[in-house]
Amino acid sequence: MLDLARIRQAAARLDGIVHRTPVVTSSWLDQQLGARVFMKAECFQRAGAFKIRGAYNAIAALSPAERARGVVAWSSGNHAQAVALAARLFGVRAVIVMPKDAPATKLAATRGYGAEVVEYDRYTEDREAIARSIAARDGLAVVPAYDHYEVMAGQGTAALELVEQVADLDAILVPISGGGLIAGCATAAKAIRPTIEIYGVEPELGSDTKQSFDAGRRIEIPIPRTIADGLTVGIPGELTFPVVRALVADILLVSEAAIVEAMRTMFERVKLVVEPSGATTLAALSQHKARFAGKRVGLILSGGNVGVERFIELVSRKA
Amino acid sequence: MLDLARIRQAAARLDGIVHRTPVVTSSWLDQQLGARVFMKAECFQRAGAFKIRGAYNAIAALSPAERARGVVAWSSGNHAQAVALAARLFGVRAVIVMPKDAPATKLAATRGYGAEVVEYDRYTEDREAIARSIAARDGLAVVPAYDHYEVMAGQGTAALELVEQVADLDAILVPISGGGLIAGCATAAKAIRPTIEIYGVEPELGSDTKQSFDAGRRIEIPIPRTIADGLTVGIPGELTFPVVRALVADILLVSEAAIVEAMRTMFERVKLVVEPSGATTLAALSQHKARFAGKRVGLILSGGNVGVERFIELVSRKA
Question: What ipTM did this prediction achieve?
């Protein structure tokens, strides 16, 4: 079960390990949007994204004997580096299953944290099957990217901090991929402040959670082809979706152009580097401005892992 | 006279008006540089740079009657917007003398703060003479960019905060243009922690303070043509230079390529947008690494006013 107690336990484990990231404000942005905006800057988090919260908490929750054998995970993105870093902090083995055509920088960064990278062919092989067979063979614990209560609890500490850092928030906007971040954040924030409204944000090009939310059941779509490379899960999680249904006010969709525009605004006005997935919450606030007029709105800026060249490619696109 | 008492008085005036900007750290950077690095993120400051500290303090220090008549300043850069914003906060008139070929965004931003912009031709006209004649005609107070004790005291509050925020710093690196920022910062930091070493940073292409420092007298050079557009003063200030001579350990020079590389590192590793002038301190630490090995080093990231297009132009240059 996921509840506030579990998230507070995660917060205690993470204390002194992960950054209590700052909340950034911009009076220019407030004026433009007609709302008071509070941005939780997880781009400053260790390994560049919120993912370390869940990964570390999941490893911390293992028994000493399990942990000592090590962990395995699959990811082509921020979860890979988060598990690698968390395992290193515990001094245990980490095996990360990554597509062999993943960006060289990501493979290198994951290896840089001391993880063993097992490469697979994403067109012919099943990464989860590979990871589970390695887990069985070597007795490793699997650290899933979202469908796991300790992972969700860890991610929820981001919102726990935010509601402690900013009084009287009316709403929080959270990016959705598998749903681990929003499930944890909604659980923490609604427990502390029941009137707060939690909104999920998805790209228009990958609206599986929106469709599922409206239908009341998990709907699968083809792998989304969005620039928000952290939000390319095609179906809500089994454990996360019931939490989203129960606690989330609505799911907002954002266009690719609005995501790029939000990255540009973060750069020029807020002076922060935010990756496409992390910029979706500002994009949603801009695209759905009327709904939040006059409100105090928290935005989770989930990560900042975008290279200079990729940033240039994105902001140079024609709309 | 410039002393700690005057800087503390400035801090009291600025309290609740300007941001107490955060100090950002990066374990990756610490590892690369072999030092503990503490970055004072003035890119988050109001109007995007430290300049509001001095401008606001100078206007606050006027008598009520002087202030009511309004202020005049000349600048093509961050000081223009800072004086415009500070005057608006006091509800008084501001006239800013700006080159007519200044970037349209800067002219617009200054007007956006409610200032009257007087344009001049930088090849045929003398901006200071224009400003002083407007001052005389309308009874306005001049707010200089650096050669003024209240301006220097205001800028010094950046270092006052930094030494309060970070214990036991061994050194602080500060960009130098006219010298207002470093004069204030050196005065504050050395008064509180006499063993601290203050280093100035200049572009190799604009080393007037380095040359003056070594010669023991103010030397004028042609207007520097560096990408660090905030550091294009060709001679140290009359009031700032004696403070620099008395309190600064050395002046470090940085190459244009090192400035660009530092901007890139700030983007990819620290997730901060820093303008070329603001990136010079990280560039200096990288270029003069051995000198700071094992030390606790503060860097003033003086501002973040660089547009996306200009950033792309800079990082896309061939070295």
Answer: 0.93
